[in-house]
Amino acid sequence: MKKSIKIMWIVFFIILSMAIIFINLLNNSKNNYKNEKIGNNKSIEEIEKYILNIKTYKANIDVTIKNNRNENTYKFTQEVTENYEKQKAVEPEEISGLEMSFMNGTVEIKNTKLNLSKIYENYPNLSENYLFLTDFIKNYQSVEQKDVKNDNGQIIMELKTNINKYNVTQRLYVNEKNLKPEKLEVFDDNNNIKVYILYNEIEINI
Questions:
Q1: Same domain, 130 and 53
Q2: What pTM does this model have?
Protein backbone atom coordinates (compact mmCIF):
# COMPACT_ATOMS: atom_id res chain seq x y z
CA MET A 1 0.00 0.00 0.00
CA LYS A 2 2.78 2.37 0.99
CA LYS A 3 4.62 1.50 -2.23
CA SER A 4 1.51 2.35 -4.28
CA ILE A 5 1.14 5.69 -2.52
CA LYS A 6 4.81 6.45 -3.16
CA ILE A 7 4.41 5.66 -6.86
CA MET A 8 1.32 7.90 -7.02
CA TRP A 9 3.26 10.80 -5.51
CA ILE A 10 6.10 10.29 -7.99
CA VAL A 11 3.66 10.31 -10.90
CA PHE A 12 1.97 13.45 -9.45
CA PHE A 13 5.25 15.35 -9.26
CA ILE A 14 6.19 14.27 -12.79
CA ILE A 15 2.86 15.55 -14.12
CA LEU A 16 3.23 18.78 -12.10
CA SER A 17 6.73 19.34 -13.45
CA MET A 18 5.57 18.77 -17.01
CA ALA A 19 2.72 21.23 -16.50
CA ILE A 20 5.11 23.91 -15.19
CA ILE A 21 7.45 23.38 -18.15
CA PHE A 22 4.52 23.61 -20.58
CA ILE A 23 3.29 26.88 -19.00
CA ASN A 24 6.78 28.39 -19.18
CA LEU A 25 7.11 27.41 -22.83
CA LEU A 26 3.72 28.95 -23.56
CA ASN A 27 4.66 32.22 -21.84
CA ASN A 28 7.96 32.38 -23.71
CA SER A 29 6.13 31.81 -26.96
CA LYS A 30 3.80 34.75 -26.20
CA ASN A 31 6.74 36.98 -25.29
CA ASN A 32 8.54 36.10 -28.51
CA TYR A 33 5.44 37.00 -30.48
CA LYS A 34 5.28 40.41 -28.80
CA ASN A 35 8.95 40.99 -29.44
CA GLU A 36 8.49 40.16 -33.09
CA LYS A 37 5.83 42.84 -33.28
CA ILE A 38 8.32 45.52 -32.23
CA GLY A 39 11.19 44.34 -34.36
CA ASN A 40 12.78 41.27 -32.77
CA ASN A 41 13.21 38.32 -35.12
CA LYS A 42 12.54 40.45 -38.19
CA SER A 43 14.89 40.00 -41.08
CA ILE A 44 17.02 42.81 -42.47
CA GLU A 45 14.82 42.87 -45.56
CA GLU A 46 11.65 43.27 -43.46
CA ILE A 47 13.13 46.17 -41.51
CA GLU A 48 14.39 47.78 -44.70
CA LYS A 49 10.90 47.51 -46.20
CA TYR A 50 9.36 48.99 -43.04
CA ILE A 51 11.65 52.05 -43.21
CA LEU A 52 11.00 52.55 -46.92
CA ASN A 53 7.26 52.59 -46.24
CA ILE A 54 7.52 55.57 -43.86
CA LYS A 55 5.39 58.36 -45.33
CA THR A 56 4.83 60.71 -42.38
CA TYR A 57 6.56 61.45 -39.08
CA LYS A 58 7.27 63.96 -36.34
CA ALA A 59 10.71 64.31 -34.81
CA ASN A 60 12.96 66.32 -32.51
CA ILE A 61 16.46 66.30 -33.96
CA ASP A 62 19.97 67.63 -33.43
CA VAL A 63 21.79 68.59 -36.62
CA THR A 64 25.55 68.99 -36.56
CA ILE A 65 27.15 70.58 -39.62
CA LYS A 66 30.90 70.32 -40.00
CA ASN A 67 33.34 72.22 -42.18
CA ASN A 68 37.11 72.55 -42.32
CA ARG A 69 37.23 75.09 -39.49
CA ASN A 70 34.48 74.27 -37.04
CA GLU A 71 31.16 72.57 -36.44
CA ASN A 72 27.79 73.90 -35.37
CA THR A 73 24.86 72.07 -33.80
CA TYR A 74 21.22 73.06 -34.18
CA LYS A 75 18.00 71.74 -32.69
CA PHE A 76 14.94 71.39 -34.91
CA THR A 77 11.46 69.98 -34.84
CA GLN A 78 10.29 68.29 -38.01
CA GLU A 79 6.85 67.36 -39.25
CA VAL A 80 6.30 65.51 -42.50
CA THR A 81 2.88 64.73 -43.93
CA GLU A 82 1.82 63.56 -47.37
CA ASN A 83 1.33 67.21 -48.36
CA TYR A 84 4.32 69.07 -46.90
CA GLU A 85 7.62 68.95 -45.02
CA LYS A 86 8.09 71.45 -42.20
CA GLN A 87 11.12 72.23 -40.09
CA LYS A 88 11.30 74.69 -37.20
CA ALA A 89 14.45 75.87 -35.43
CA VAL A 90 14.55 75.56 -31.64
CA GLU A 91 18.21 76.32 -30.85
CA PRO A 92 20.41 78.34 -30.90
CA GLU A 93 18.44 81.34 -29.74
CA GLU A 94 19.38 83.56 -32.70
CA ILE A 95 17.50 81.31 -35.15
CA SER A 96 14.80 80.09 -32.78
CA GLY A 97 11.37 80.41 -34.38
CA LEU A 98 12.68 80.24 -37.94
CA GLU A 99 10.40 77.88 -39.88
CA MET A 100 10.76 76.38 -43.34
CA SER A 101 7.93 74.60 -45.16
CA PHE A 102 8.42 72.65 -48.39
CA MET A 103 5.38 71.94 -50.55
CA ASN A 104 4.95 71.26 -54.27
CA GLY A 105 8.33 72.68 -55.25
CA THR A 106 7.95 75.87 -53.23
CA VAL A 107 9.56 76.91 -49.97
CA GLU A 108 8.01 79.23 -47.41
CA ILE A 109 10.38 80.71 -44.84
CA LYS A 110 8.79 82.21 -41.74
CA ASN A 111 10.10 84.08 -38.77
CA THR A 112 7.40 83.32 -36.23
CA LYS A 113 8.86 85.78 -33.72
CA LEU A 114 8.70 88.72 -36.13
CA ASN A 115 5.63 87.46 -37.99
CA LEU A 116 7.45 87.66 -41.34
CA SER A 117 7.34 85.21 -44.25
CA LYS A 118 8.78 84.78 -47.73
CA ILE A 119 7.79 82.27 -50.44
CA TYR A 120 10.24 80.97 -53.06
CA GLU A 121 8.83 79.31 -56.16
CA ASN A 122 10.72 76.43 -57.80
CA TYR A 123 13.34 76.49 -55.07
CA PRO A 124 16.58 75.21 -56.73
CA ASN A 125 18.09 73.34 -53.79
CA LEU A 126 15.19 70.99 -53.05
CA SER A 127 16.95 68.16 -54.88
CA GLU A 128 19.96 68.51 -52.54
CA ASN A 129 17.95 68.43 -49.33
CA TYR A 130 19.10 65.76 -46.87
CA LEU A 131 17.66 66.95 -43.55
CA PHE A 132 14.39 65.05 -43.86
CA LEU A 133 14.14 61.30 -43.35
CA THR A 134 11.70 61.04 -46.25
CA ASP A 135 14.28 62.54 -48.59
CA PHE A 136 16.73 59.81 -47.62
CA ILE A 137 14.00 57.25 -48.33
CA LYS A 138 13.28 58.73 -51.77
CA ASN A 139 16.99 58.73 -52.62
CA TYR A 140 17.41 55.16 -51.38
CA GLN A 141 14.57 53.98 -53.59
CA SER A 142 15.93 55.72 -56.68
CA VAL A 143 19.70 55.10 -56.60
CA GLU A 144 21.44 51.96 -57.81
CA GLN A 145 24.33 51.99 -55.35
CA LYS A 146 22.93 51.07 -51.94
CA ASP A 147 23.43 48.51 -49.22
CA VAL A 148 21.83 47.34 -45.97
CA LYS A 149 23.43 45.37 -43.16
CA ASN A 150 23.16 44.53 -39.46
CA ASP A 151 25.91 45.80 -37.16
CA ASN A 152 25.53 44.96 -33.45
CA GLY A 153 21.79 45.58 -33.23
CA GLN A 154 21.73 48.47 -35.68
CA ILE A 155 20.41 48.20 -39.21
CA ILE A 156 22.56 50.40 -41.44
CA MET A 157 21.11 51.57 -44.75
CA GLU A 158 23.68 53.24 -46.99
CA LEU A 159 23.40 54.90 -50.38
CA LYS A 160 25.65 56.70 -52.82
CA THR A 161 24.20 59.99 -54.05
CA ASN A 162 27.10 61.89 -55.66
CA ILE A 163 24.89 65.00 -55.60
CA ASN A 164 27.98 67.11 -54.96
CA LYS A 165 31.36 66.66 -53.32
CA TYR A 166 29.88 67.42 -49.90
CA ASN A 167 27.03 64.94 -50.26
CA VAL A 168 28.40 61.70 -51.68
CA THR A 169 27.27 59.04 -49.20
CA GLN A 170 24.33 58.92 -46.80
CA ARG A 171 24.03 56.40 -43.99
CA LEU A 172 20.93 55.79 -41.84
CA TYR A 173 21.12 53.84 -38.58
CA VAL A 174 17.95 52.08 -37.39
CA ASN A 175 17.38 50.41 -34.01
CA GLU A 176 16.77 46.72 -34.70
CA LYS A 177 14.36 46.30 -31.76
CA ASN A 178 12.03 49.29 -31.92
CA LEU A 179 12.56 49.98 -35.66
CA LYS A 180 13.16 53.69 -35.06
CA PRO A 181 15.83 55.68 -36.91
CA GLU A 182 18.59 56.80 -34.53
CA LYS A 183 20.93 58.87 -36.68
CA LEU A 184 21.70 59.91 -40.25
CA GLU A 185 25.18 60.74 -41.51
CA VAL A 186 26.20 62.53 -44.71
CA PHE A 187 29.75 62.03 -46.01
CA ASP A 188 31.81 64.02 -48.50
CA ASP A 189 34.06 62.69 -51.26
CA ASN A 190 36.88 62.21 -48.71
CA ASN A 191 34.60 60.09 -46.50
CA ASN A 192 34.41 62.81 -43.84
CA ILE A 193 31.14 63.38 -42.00
CA LYS A 194 29.73 66.73 -43.09
CA VAL A 195 26.25 66.44 -41.55
CA TYR A 196 25.21 64.40 -38.53
CA ILE A 197 21.52 64.13 -37.62
CA LEU A 198 20.51 62.64 -34.28
CA TYR A 199 16.88 61.62 -33.81
CA ASN A 200 16.17 62.39 -30.16
CA GLU A 201 12.46 61.62 -30.52
CA ILE A 202 10.54 60.36 -33.51
CA GLU A 203 6.95 59.34 -34.07
CA ILE A 204 6.47 57.40 -37.28
CA ASN A 205 3.44 57.29 -39.59
CA ILE A 206 1.48 59.90 -37.64
A1: yes
A2: 0.75
